[in-house]
Amino acid sequence: MSSKIPEIRFNGFTVDWEQRKLGELGSVAMNKRIFKEQTFNTGDIPFYKIGTFGGKPDAYISRKIFEDYKQKYPYPKKGDILISASGSIGRTVEYRGKDEYFQDSNIVWLKHDERLVNSFLKQFYKIVKWQGLEGSTIKRLYNKNILNTSIFIPSAEEQDRIGAFFNQLDDAIALHQRELENFKKSKKAFLQKMFPKNGETVPEIRFDGFADDWEQRRLGDYAIYRRGSFPQPYGNKEWYDGDGAMPFVQVVDVTKHLTLVDDTKQKISKLAQLKSVFVPKGKVVVTLQGSIGRVAITQYDTFVDRTLLIFEDYKNSTDAHFWAYVIQKKFEIEKQKAPGGTIKTITKESLSSFEVSLPEYQEQKRIGLFFKQLDDTITMHQRQLENLKQTKKAFLQKMFV
Question: Distance between CA 239 and CA 9 in Å, rounded?
Answer without folding.
Answer: 52
